[in-house]
Amino acid sequence: MIAEEVRQLRGEAERALDAVRDPAGLAEWKAQYLGDKSALSGLLRGIGQLPKEERPAAGQAINAAKRALEARLAEASERVRTASLASTLDAERLDVTLPGRPRAVGTLHVVTQTVRDIVAAFVQMGFEIVEGPEIELDYYNFELLNIPPEHPARSLHDTFYIAGNDQLVLRTHTSPNQIRVMQREKPPIRVIVPGKCYRDEATDATHEAYFYQIEGLAVDKNVTLADLKGTLAALAHALFGESRKVRFRCDYFPYVEPGVDLAIECQICGGRGCRACKFTGFLEIMGAGMVHPQVLRNGGIDPDVYSGFAFGLGPERIAMLRHGIDDIRLYYGNDLRFLRQFS
Prior knowledge:
Blueprint: H1 2-18, H2 23-33, H3 39-45, H4 55-91, H5 110-124, E1 128-129, E2 135-137, H6 138-141, E3 161-162, E4 165-170, H7 176-184, E5 189-198, E6 210-220, H8 225-240, E7 246-251, E8 256-265, E9 282-291, H9 293-298, E10 307-313, H10 315-323, H11 336-339
Parallel strand pairs: 1-5
Antiparallel strand pairs: 2-4, 3-4, 5-6, 6-10, 7-8, 8-9, 9-10
């Protein structure tokens, strides 16, 4: 009687196990047919109520059925695991024949590109690159460059002063580093000084309160204005092409004597004259001149033995001319539509 009941329970359990397709079903099946409250476990607990002579056979039959079902459960578990893995792999299948998705790569800012082009042109001419502090002493930013206290460039309208210390300023140009170089080095000197500058100016299409500047200095024996003109003409041709005309005119800067400005042929009108160049046919790109004797003395160099030239230009302005940009504020507006044009 017990053997027949065990056989029926085993058959029922095996048929139910064949229908299981997921881990949750396996757990439910195990609790129903092999758990402490299963019918098989109930039969095992009831052996003590059977006649003594029937107990061994009943126990053997129940234990054999239990071992057989546990073996079938192991097989079913492997079957379900394999099927589940295959389903997952199929759902997450990657088609390796598709082209890869490119990762976005950053590019150099248009002003950075222009700075590097200018620096490269001067390096080819034998200039060394030097840098200096953006927070500068008034002494270096103005006094040693022949800009006395009463000079209008010191006005609060032009200069950012550090709160609590009227001797510290945000540098208004990179020229202070020319003095620093002359104080620690002896001629011959050929350096360029790229970096950020700051002026308390109203922002408009051609002016920003923060901007890049590249200053240059050359000091040696017998340096003349002809050397300056040749150097700057070579730079203009490197940046704007060999065919571009250049023009030098007298101008005033407190730390050079004589002073000149360099202009290039207007690329908008081709030198014919337009509103952009104020109908002159030329656009100014930098100021320059022979280093003032007093500035040489301030740098510890004897002006009776050595002479030199200096210049300064704004990369933002150069980029505007090279790329036809009509508003300097576009550089720092973080508009990707504008910036991506130069990537």
